[in-house]
Model the fold of this input.
Amino acid sequence: MSHDIRITPSILNADFDNLQNEIAKIAAVSDLIHLDVMDNIFVPNFTFDFDSARTIIDRCPIGIDAHLMVAEVDQIARLYAQVGCASVTIHAEATEDIATTLRAIRSEGSRSGLALKPNTPISDYEEFSDLVDMFLIMTVEPGFGGQRFMHEMMNKVRATRALIGDRPIWLQVDGGISLETIEIAVQAGADTFVAGSAVFNANDPAKMVVSLRERAQAVAD
Ligand code: DX5
Ligand code: ZN
Done:
């Protein structure tokens, strides 16, 4: 198994009153910053409206990986692409027109992502894989940081890796990623890792990002 490894830390568990400082701690060692957008409708939690998110996006020194956990995703996804997010991920359960929204994201120059909640099977979405630059397999129920990694999602990760084959589609996991669970996720075929509480609860967040990358790379090589 030899994949490029990407670490995309989530700032959900960072100090929201000092986000610029929090991002600055990890920017140099991270591939992208994972921005969890929640509307309190699709998930029972709220993070940012578009204007607040835009301020973060504009000030971020590296690319943004926007994870949209919002009900009105078909209206909102294009906006995140237009303001320059490197990647915009929509939830399969929220969109009413997957193909149009994935195409809209790409047409604005962003990578298109498709996320699946734990109970959503990958087999329902195989037909859209040519429109997808990244699959996100949730390893917790979306909504909150600090939850337990769902080992039972590894079958879905393996099935998604088989679907991707040799294509340059990233395979991201999100939820409960730590120095222990990242190895399991790499073995199942993931190559792109969100980590929130593991990074921001660490004494040295940047060092934790480096350690996560080293741990994943050691398994992938
Ligand atoms: C949860 C979010 C995650 C969250 C992960 O709905 O999508 O990105 O920040 O946090 P940890 O790594 O603490 O599980
Ligand atoms: Zn996320």
Remarks:
- The chain has a mean pLDDT of 97.
- The CA atoms of residues 126 and 163 lie 7 Å apart.
